[in-house]
Structure to design on (206 residues):
């Protein structure tokens, strides 16, 4: 799939999915999973997504993805490399830390006491399908450029530097990421650092 087709497919997916608002992350994920079509692709690797019953799984053959860690420390297959998860583009840690409830008790406490947090966590403008391993590796790292870092996921071009706590997404995903950040800022009054703002402004023009 070309970069243009990828962006178009992702945009159509977002527009279709965003017809509803949620205050439950689990309900938002269920809704998004039901909207997945043959044209839906993962955010970072541009992989096709297959349905296995109620599960969503990546199709590595469609994108050349290979796990960074095929097996866990216990010698078991890395289950997260074989499933689709719904990635918060702006991490829950990032928007949650801007609320008092997070300072008082973290994510679980915010879910319990803050309607605003529940809306942000379940906002499908800020959610995208990602391979579980990459979602986990990304953690709450900030986006940035990593010219000296190699990709570690086969032909999937996403780069993650664990020491710098940075992630560089492929070019085809950057506008979607920038749009999500600016949407979260506008909708919920969240803060974006000057460095990130400069980066995302450039990405929106790509």
């Amino acid at each position: 799939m070309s970069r243009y087709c990828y962006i178009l497919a992702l945009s159509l997916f977002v527009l279709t999915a965003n017809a509803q608002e949620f205050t439950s992350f689990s309900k938002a994920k269920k809704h998004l999973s039901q909207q997945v079509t043959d044209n839906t692709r993962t955010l970072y690797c541009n992989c096709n997504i297959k349905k296995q019953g109620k599960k969503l799984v990546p199709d590595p053959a469609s994108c050349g993805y290979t796990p960074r860690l095929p097996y866990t420390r216990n010698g078991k297959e890395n289950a997260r490399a074989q499933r689709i998860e719904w990635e918060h583009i702006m991490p829950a840690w990032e928007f949650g830390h801007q609320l008092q409830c997070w300072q008082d008790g973290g994510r679980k406490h915010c879910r319990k006491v803050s309607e605003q947090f529940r809306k942000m966590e379940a906002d499908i403008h800020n959610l995208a399908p990602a391979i579980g391993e990459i979602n986990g590796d990304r953690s709450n790292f900030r986006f940035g450029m990593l010219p000296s870092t190699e990709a570690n996921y086969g032909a999937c071009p996403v780069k993650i530097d664990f020491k710098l706590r940075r992630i560089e997404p492929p070019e085809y995903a950057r506008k979607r990421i920038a749009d999500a950040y600016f949407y979260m800022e506008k909708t919920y009054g969240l803060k974006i650092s000057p460095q990130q703002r400069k980066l995302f402004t450039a990405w929106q023009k790509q």
